[in-house]
Structures are given as C-alpha cells and as structure tokens.
Design goal:
The protein contains five helices and five strands, in the order ββαβββαααα. It is α+β, with helices and mostly antiparallel strands. It folds into two domains: 78 residues, Ubiquitin-like (UB roll); 68 residues, [2Fe-2S]-binding domain (DNA polymerase, domain 1), CATH 1.10.150. The radius of gyration is 16 Å and the shape is globular.
Amino acid sequence: MKKHAITLTVNGEERDLIVPSNRTLLDALRDDLGFTDTKYGCGTGECGACTVLVDGTTSINGCLTLAATMDGRSITTAAGLARDGDLHPVQQAFIDNDAIQCGFCTPGMVLKTISILDENPNPSEAEIRQGLEGSICRCTGYTKIVEAVQDASNRLSGLGE
C-alpha cells in the first residue's frame, strides 16, 4: 500500500508522520500521535465521538477522513483548547452546567459546539439541537448539553460569567 509523508499541526504543534493511503485521521491522531481525547465510537461517522476541528472551527469526523488528505492542515482536539491552565469557555460551560456524565462524548460535543457557535454565535434551542445532530450521548436526554451550549454562547458573546 502506498504511504504518504504528511505534516499536521495538532494542538499548535507541528507533527510529521508517514501514513498508508487508507489510514484515517482518527487512527493517526490516537495511535500514531497519542491524542486519545479523540474517541473511537462507531467508526462510521454516526456518533461524533471522533470530532476534531480543522483549521480553526470546522468540525469533521476523524473516522471518515483520510489522514493523507489533511497534509498541511491544523487539527485541534479537545485537549488543545485550554490555554495557560484555563479551560476554553465551552469546556467550562459543559462543566458548570453538569453536561458531562460518563464523559465519552464530551470531547466531540465540545468541539462540535465550538463549530456551531462559530457559524451562529446566538443559536436558538432548535438550532443547537440541529447542530448537534450526529453527536450521540448515551447518558443524557441532551437538556444539559443544550443548556451548556446556550451558556457557552453567552460566555463567548460577553453576556455570561
């Protein structure tokens, strides 16, 4: 199988690796680079556990993306959001609103929230629920997650804490 030399900037750090043509971004992040905060859920793009941000705020499913197609791109995982020991406002909103139970879906939900709020800084509840489609949480009824997204919207627009 053909292999590709690629360079990814992951959470602000440039990383070089060689990947086979069929290697997913998820596998490259988790297995080759050790970013285990990006979760393997379904492997078919249905659950959102593998969500990462590309070039800032565009969310993608790492399990559906070939690593070789990401050469030269910037990838952010949930672990790359905190700055100088402070959590990102979206991460803090999830904690403050008790939107975390088992935590498996949380990294993907947080990253998807950043993408939603970048596109629409003040979404309605219906828009939040629609934006979260494809991100599955097996522990909640999504109410706390929606509240966390609303709180994060307020924080990022300067209306929150």
